[in-house]
Amino acid sequence: MAKEDVIEFEGVVDEILPGGQFRVRLTTDQVILAYTAGKMRKNRIRTLVGDRVTIEMTPYDLTRGRLVYRHKAESTGTGPARRVYRPRR
Fold first, then answer.
1. Backbone conformation region of residue 18, classed left if phi is above 0, alpha if psi is from -120 to 50, else beta
2. Per-residue pLDDT tens digits for 29-38
């Protein structure tokens, strides 16, 4: 296996830790420590508890990973909530 090879897993964010780190429960029921990848940090993509994410891991350390993608939530309907304009009296 080459040094550049990575293994991708999907999981759900369990806990948010300081410094852009997260505890993620993988689909294999393993809990790992993941940090936000550069593009996600650069574009200020927010990740919350319960979000489904994709993790990249090296074959050398299977307890740490890099959070590379936050999957969009499957919405059930109407769309974003909108603000209603109500004039003051």
1. beta
2. 999 999 998 8
Q: How far, rounded to the nearest angstrom, does the alpha carbon of residue 73 sit from its chain's CA centroid?
A: 12
Cβ atoms of residues 56 and 39 within 8 Å: no
Q: pTM of whole model > 0.85?
A: no
* Contact status, residue 24 vs residue 11, Cβ threshold 8 Å: yes
**Integer Cα distance of 73 and 41 in angstroms:** 20
Residue that the structure tokens 């993790």 belong to = 55
Per the listing, tokens 């939530």 go with 73
CA distances from 46 to 3, 60, 87 (A): 30, 28, 33
What is the rounded CA–CA span in Å between residue 72 and residue 68? 13
Q: What is the DSSP letter of 78?
A: S
The domains of the chain, with CATH numbers, are 7-70 (2.40.50.140)
